[in-house]
Amino acid sequence: EIKINAFMMYQQQIKAILLPCYCVLILVLASSVHSFLPSVNLMRSSNTRSSTNVNSNSNSIIRLRAMEVSSSTVVTPAPQLLEFREPLTNVTVVLVGSMHYNPTSIRLASQTVQQLGQQNRLGSVLIESCDLRWNKTMDLYETKPYLKSILGNEMRAAQEQAFAFNLPVVLGDQRINITSAAMKESFKQTITDLVTPPSGWRRFKEEFDVAWEDAVPNGDSQYLSPLAFFDPRLLLALPVSLVKYPLSFLVRDPLPTSIVFAVLFGLSFVSTGGVSADDFTAVGSTPITTYTDIEVFGNLFFAVLETVVFARLLLKPLLADRNVILAENILQQCKIYETTNNANTKSTAATTFGGGVGGWFGFLTGDTGTKTTSPPARTGSRIPMDDIIYAPGSLLDNTQAGANGDGTEKVVVAVLGMAHLNGVMKLLKEQ
User: Fold this and answer.
1) Which is nearest to 414 in space by CA: 238, 169, 75, 230?
2) Cβ(409)–Cβ(339) below 8 Å
3) How far is CA 402 from CA 57, 379, 398, 409, in A?
4) Are 60 and 36 in contact (CB under 8 A)?
5) Using one digit for the tens of pLDDT, what is the confidence trace for 146-166?
6) Please, what is the end-to-end C-alpha distance for the chain in angstroms?
C-alpha cells in the first residue's frame, strides 16, 4: 500500500511538471511553424491587381511558383488541394483541404486565395461556416480582440485575402442548429437500432453503407489521397490544432462544450472500468493493473459501442448531409461565373435551382424533370442573390456586374475540412 501511495504521488508530481511544459511546447511549436512558412503580403488595392510572383523564402517549407493563366492548373499544386472543372458550368473549382486551426492549413488557404487574386482569376471564396457560427465568432472578436490572434483559422485567413481583393465570401455550410438537430436525431435512431435487432441492425448497416459511399468515395484518381492527412507539415503543427480547436468551442459555447467534454470523460472512465488504487498489484517495484474477464469484456463492449455511435454521427449528419449543402452552394457560385456552353456542359437539360432540377439535386428535392433551354452567354442573372449567404462586409459589385467582364476565366475557391473534399467533389462531378 505504501508503494502504491508513493506511485500515485509520483504520478501527480509528473503531471504537475508536464502540463506547463506541454503548454510551453505548444507556444514554441506554433511560433516555429510560423517561422518556417513563407510570409504572405496582402494586396489592399481595389483598382489594380498585381500579377507579380509571390516571394517565398528559400528555406521555407511551402514554395509558390508563378503560374501562367493558360496553364493546366491555376494554383500551385499541394497535397491538400483538389482542382477540377465543374461539368455543368465548366467553371474551375479549387477545393482547399484543411486541418482546422492548423498553421499549415491557414497558410495554404491564404496563399491559394492570394495567388488567384493576383492572377485576376479569383471569383468567389466559399468557407465551411454558416451565418450563425460566423456572426457569433465575429461578435466575440469585437468584444475580445485578443482572441483574433489566439484563435486564427484558415477560414478567416481566406476571408481576409478575399476582402483584400474586394471579392465576396460565401458562408456555404449548413446552419449549426440544423446540424445539431440532425445529430440528436441520428443519436436517438442509432440507440433505437442497436436495441432492436435484427431489423434495427440491418437498418443501421444500410444507412452506414450509404453514408460511407457518399462521404468517403474512392475510385477516382483525382480524389484526395489518404497520405494528405499525414503530411509532415500538418503533423508538425498538429498539437496546435489539438489545443485551438476544442478551445474555440469552449470560448464560443462554454456550457454545451463543457457538457460534451464531461460526457466524453465519463465514457472514457467507464471504458477503463473505473480503475482505482485497489486495482494495483506490486510486482517487485513495478505496480501493474489486473482486470477480471468481465472487466475486459465490458471495456471491449463500451469501446465498440462508442465507435459505432460516433462513426454514424460522423458519417451521416456531420459529413454526408453537410457535403450536399456545401456542393450545392459551390455549384451556385459556379453558375454565376459560367460563360458559354461547350463539350463539357449539357446543352439541352439546363439545371436550375428553381425548377427542372435533375441529378442528385433533383433526387434530394423530388424534382427530376428537365427544362430544355439554350444557355445564355452569362448565367449570373439566373442566380437569386438573396439565396446566397455572404459574410458581412462582402462586396457584391464584382459578382453582380460583369463577373467575367474583364475576359478572364474565374475560379471558385472553397476552403473546407479535408474530410469533406472527396465527398463534395464526387457530388459536383456526378450530378
Assistant:
1) 169
2) yes
3) 37, 11, 7, 12
4) yes
5) 888 888 899 999 999 999 999
6) 67
